[in-house]
Amino acid sequence: MVETKTTNEVFTEVKRIFTAFLEQQNQRKTPERFAILEEIYHRTDHFDAEALYIHMKNQSYRVSRATVYNTLELLVHCDLVKRHQFGKNLAQYEKSFGFKQHDHLICLDCGKVLEFCDPRIQQIKTMMGDLLHFKIAHHSLNLYGHCDSACDKNRKNLPTSA
Amino acid sequence: MVETKTTNEVFTEVKRIFTAFLEQQNQRKTPERFAILEEIYHRTDHFDAEALYIHMKNQSYRVSRATVYNTLELLVHCDLVKRHQFGKNLAQYEKSFGFKQHDHLICLDCGKVLEFCDPRIQQIKTMMGDLLHFKIAHHSLNLYGHCDSACDKNRKNLPTSA
DNA sequence: TTGTGTGCAAAAGCTTTGCATGTTG
DNA sequence: CAACATGCAAAGCTTTTGCACACAA
Asked: Span A26-49, mean pLDDT?
């Protein structure tokens, strides 16, 4: 996560970026889209589409799953949100603007997600792109293991494998 | 893939391993399970559960989806099969015995999957495991990009994002 | 005003489960 | 013979789609 600006600075900038993106794409600047953006940037860590939907419903915000999924896709396209899959058939998301690029370490027992940075992954991307004649757009590196502490092994939504 | 033994050598050994695993786990050695193992080790590259099921049906083998999924899970547990998700909500599998550890490069246009090896990933695993106090069990590294050639951009089952 | 985004609900796609039957040990 | 895996179909879960309505431009 590694925050580099204040939450307000980030959110102001993020709204500007999303606005510019929507205009450039001739997409409408609807209140729902900005409400979802705001909700996402007020969250910490990772979440799935359903959790985001439920949380907005709980705040009495009238929004549909369709709009949540649609907006998440827009936000991923303009790089304000990152999409992950931690070994489950379930997409997880996290805000990505103003945070350092990082990869993930997932506990197979309790589902806890830690983040880390390693410059070698960038070297691998560059070398393999050259070697295999690919233009690398992005990557996903997940390490799966067991954390030290006596973690809650009964937690739901555990990663299965891979 | 990088084969290191002949197909027959591998398959003989793989049957032995699966047999031992089933005995150790007090699981039955049913013909269905070995038929699925055989089918998998006669395939190349990556496949999903449905493709495996369909292919067995086409060979007039009487097998159910439930058994396919159940057996795949057993095979993953005894490390004879690896499970992947290339950015889709769809598990992909590949045989893993007798093949070098490798990671994947996926074309976002045509879905093509290439494999590569890089020793630095092992270094990252060791270092991050130590640093963050995790016992790393396995990892998943996928590079997403665009391949040089004029690939078929209309292919189904393309990766979405992440 | 007009085209496009939205909400809602139904459908789709992958995977798991329940139950009766068949088979392994 | 008894326990457990199988086949089949139905259910479960996440995500997508269709359609009428509402609203941004």
From this structure: 96
Closest approach of chain B CAs to the CA of A43, in angstroms? 20
DSSP B89: S
Q: What is the spatial distance between Cα B33 and Cα B41, in angstroms, rounded to a whole number?
A: 12
| Average pLDDT of the segment spanning B123-150 | 93
Task: Work out the burial of residue B71: count CB atoms within 10 Å of its CB; fewer than 13 is exposed, 13-18 middle, 19 or more buried.
Answer: buried
Closest CA to A94 of A62, A53, A52: A52
The DSSP letter of residue A87 is S
What would be the CATH architecture of the domain defined by B101-162? Answer: 2-Layer Sandwich (3.30)
Residue A17, amino acid: I
Residue B160 or residue B80, greater confidence: B80
Contact B134/A105 with Cβ under 8 angstroms? Answer: yes
Cα A32 to chain centroid, rounded: 19
The band of A3, judged by pLDDT with boundaries at 50, 70 and 90, is low
DSSP state for residue A46 in the 8-state scheme: -
Residues of chain B neighbouring A112 (CB-CB closer than 8 A)? none
Q: Which residues of A touch B (CB under 8 A)?
A: 76, 82-85, 87, 89-91, 105, 107-108, 114, 116, 118, 120-121, 123-125, 127-129, 131-148, 160-162
* A106 contacts A46 by C-beta, under 8 angstroms: no
CATH code, residues A1-99: 1.10.10.10
Domain residue spans in chain A? 1-99, 101-162
pTM exceeding the 0.85 threshold for the entire prediction: yes
The answer to whether residues B91 and B64 touch, using CB atoms and an 8 Å cutoff, is: no
Strand runs labelled E in chain A: 47-48, 81-84, 92-95, 103-107, 113-116, 134-147
Beta bridge partners of A103: A116
A115 Cβ contact list (under 8 Å, min separation 6):
A1, A2, A102, A103, A104, A105
A134 and B143 in contact (C-beta within 8 Å)? yes
